[in-house]
Structure prediction request, 275 residues.
Amino acid sequence: MALPGSGVLTLADIQTEFGGTNPISLSEYYRGGGLVPDSSLNTGVPTSGVISVSDFYGASARLSLNYASTFSGTVVNGTSITIGTARGTRMVHIQGVAITVPTSGTIGGVTAAFISAPSGLSSPYGHWQAWAKVPTGTTATVTLNTGGGTSYVSTFDTVNASASTTSYQSQPPNQGQGPINFNFSGAVEDEGIAFWSFQRSFGGGVATLTLSSNSPGNVIYKYYLNNVPAYNGPGVALGYNITSTNDTRTFYGNSNGGFYKIGANNFTGAIFKSN
Prediction:
């Protein structure tokens, strides 16, 4: 729990919150130095120079999510994106829709993790996620091995190097009629965030795509395209949910009705924890 915002505060209180060694020295507790997270909760703690006990009122060893949407637009190889305030705990996450999906690359010079779901028969759009811890800079250049397109960039704080749970699913190659449903489950945290996306090909008829979850709060759609006449109605949806519980939650991609075709029904998901 966080240190008090006023009143008596001692070196022992600071050590109890952040850890450290005896004898206690405030020089152990610069923000971003290893014990005190460089987070929005700890902006009063200096990163160097003069430091005092009073700097630690309200400080916490736990991170807040500090989620921000920082960029939307076309991302291809060499695109510069806005990523907000530099800090050691900053994760940069990209969700994108593309005819050709990238499978590897970097964000701000840091090698990114990718989940890529390709386009396919009767669906011209694939979808992808990429993320990396980028501690420096307010902008970052993205490199992609191929493709790219309409994309959405988010930043948030985490002590972790990557996602805690990921999922890629695709329907076996066949075609038919009726609903297409995917889901993935994983341990979530208060605070954390889950991103997931769902694509369905259509061969006729009408179907509606939905993203949903049993995690409290709203599903925020980043991108939604449904029933495109030129392609007999393919669709893709990207979204996220800010998690607020400490348990296991499930995230769904569903569609009803219509015909579907081979090899373009797929799903990606990633869960991140702040702490």
Remarks:
- The chain has a mean pLDDT of 89.
- The radius of gyration is 22 Å.
